[in-house]
Amino acid sequence: MVTNALTKLALPKNSPSRPHAPHPARHLPREPPAPGIVRNPRVAVDLSGGLRALIRYMTNQHNSSSAPESIAPTDNNNRVFTTISYMSLWWAALTSIQLFALGQGLLPPIGHLNLSQALLVMALAGAIFVGTLSANGQAGLLYGIPFAIQARASFGVRGSRIIEVLRALPAIIWFGIGTWIATLAVNGILKTLTGFSAPYAAYVYFVVLQALQIWLAYRGIRAMKSFNMIGSIVIAAILIYMLAHILSAYGFHMNPSWKSAPDWGAPFWTGLTSAIGILAPVTLNISDMTRHLHRSERAIWIGHACGVLPPLFFVLVLGMASGLALGIWDPVQALMTLSPNPFVMILLLAFILLAQISANLTINILPPTLILMSSLRISWGRGALLTGALATLSFPWMLMANAKAFFGFILYCSAFFGPVLGVMLADYFVIRKRRLHVERLYVADASSEYWYLGGFNVAGLLAVFVPGLITMIWCLPVSWLIGAPAGFVLYGALWRLAIPAASVAYQRRRASSRL
Fold this sequence. Notes:
Largest sheet: none
Strand content: under 5%
Helix content: 55-70%
Radius of gyration: 24 Å
Oligomer: single chain
Number of strands: 0
Shape: globular
Structural class: mainly alpha
Distance between the termini: 21 Å
């Protein structure tokens, strides 16, 4: 009797093993009941392999499902974000110097677009972000699972680790870049205000800032939420002041090149792909954030539309205005040049520090830390420490040396991020109809439904690397734009060919679900 009760409790109500239930209002499947938790490990209960694995994650390794830093499913009672706090998370996370630098690189004299093209790039990128973040975040919103577990459905238990590395490495590098930008700001501003200068100063600041961010991350998602909510208010106020200062000092006629004839060739497509690519990694692991959002489809769309678009547009416009006015690529040097007095310079220092720390906490520390937890079976704290150590060893100052290296890094990463997103969307919406067996996703051996062929979903991996390599070699300026739909279509075509022959376990599970 106990076994039957636990088995029924572990299966989602909309599982194919049960009669299909109609979706309620708001078009979300019924919430899958939280898997049972064995409070006393001495109680002998006959459990399925999936439920046993999930209980091990939730009780022994990660203490309980109430810990947001666990990779176990997050239930509704332990979700920390309301719609408003989720919006403030994005306001703080997207107010970054990387986006400011992107805005600088769109218009002359650094870039090659005119003003109308730059605005079109912003609008298209914003629409794509809201759509892809909201769509790929559905699994986290509904089932409470992180990206590291969600990816097993699309790529297999072992294949998902390859995708996790593709996601984690750029995040770690961006973490280092963000800290280095903040380091340059601290060094330059303190030198201007106090006259202090030393060859080793920048490296000392870098280590101190890394330690501060790792400490904040170590305290968990709730500390990150509190920091971002406070930071978003201060950042918004400083941004408004800075934009007003630029317009009053330089006016709208900053550079006649914004009226130049449009070039709809490679410069436009490179600019669009770069604008998408700078946040494309976040569209993959968005479930790491939506699993902490209270369960509502309205909340996820409003949260992304109102949380992503305003800071995205504001920071890009600020970067474009700075680029037109000064023609300086170095974002920190440009911002310092725009500071008319020591008071504004202090505000600038606060802005850069808050902006970079907020962006790093949400976008660049959270994803690789959860991935390291899943892959290495380590705690959240150890994962955060390892992420910080790897970011320190990424030599971020090399990528910020010039605009060509900066944009090249984004384009090459985008070649694979587009197909990965396409595969995940096709798998979740087309193949599985938004139904995942949560307890079976946590089974990491050959008995898993998601084991496929030796732990690898051949269809998913081929649908990523074939278009990824092709776009990287022959059409890099449009890599993401081609790769995302190509991955979506190719995965659907390969699914029926690769999967039935690849996984006996999958066929057995599928056959049993029809009974």
